[in-house]
Amino acid sequence: MNRLLFFLVGMVVLPAFSWLALVELPRLQLDAVTPSAAPLSALAAQGGRVYAAENCAVCHTEQAAPGDRAALDRNWVRRPTVPNDFRSAYPAMPGLLRIGPDLSDVGHRLSAVSLAQILYTPPAGMPSYRFLFEPAQPGGEIVATPQGAALLAYLLALEQTLPAPASAPAAP
């Protein structure tokens, strides 16, 4: 009977301790940190859902590693990405592969007009997202649908405007 009680207590204590160590303590640590990214507007948050639905994170990343010389040399990013950059993003979409350019600072690099042009008539290897825009006007102006406007707002919000926290690794 004594062993059974020990076993039952262990079945409760071990998962509780694991939950505290793996979930609750990191959450408490993150709560004490100021986000290094501004919260998304409602339109940009809707654009994040379009970004996820169109599987953009399969080809694009939203993170520049500290040793990522290619992204820094091409001026794709101003600084390496830190975990705190995803603090206000839900869900965080760091990306799977970097087939296309890194998007972590695309709002700084490109204007809304440039992004719309890329989405409407993409470079080789990128799928077209013309369905997110109205047919081109005679003057060449591209008008976004509500989903297209939301996606553009999300991409423009991907800007490293706030400095990295002091704990961020220095760029090489």
Name some characteristics of this structure.
172 residues, mainly alpha, 6 helices, elongated, disordered C terminus
Overview of the structural elements:
The chain is mainly α. It folds into two domains: 1-33; 40-157, Cytochrome Bc1 Complex, Chain D, domain 2 (Orthogonal Bundle), CATH 1.10.760.10. The chain is 42% helix and 0% strand. Helix 2 (42-53) crosses helix 6 (146-157). 26% of the residues are buried.
Write the layout of secondary structure elements.
Blueprint: H1 2-31, H2 42-53, H3 69-73, H4 106-109, H5 112-120, H6 146-157
Helix pairs in contact: 2-6
Brief summary:
This protein is an all-alpha fold.
C-alpha Rg (nearest Å): 21 Å
Could you list the spans in which at least 5 consecutive residues all have pLDDT below 50?
168-172
Overall number of strands: 0
| CATH superfamily placement of the largest domain | Cytochrome c-like domain
- Structural class call reads mainly alpha
Q: Looking at the chains present, what oligomeric state does this protein adopt?
A: single chain
- Give the termini distance in whole angstroms: 61 Å
Please report the first level of CATH classification, the CATH class of the largest domain.
Mainly Alpha
Number of helices: 6
CATH topology label of the largest domain: Cytochrome Bc1 Complex, Chain D, domain 2
% residues in beta strands: under 5%
Shape: elongated
User: Mean pLDDT across all residues, rounded?
Assistant: 80
Largest sheet: none
How many structural domains can be distinguished in the coordinates?
2
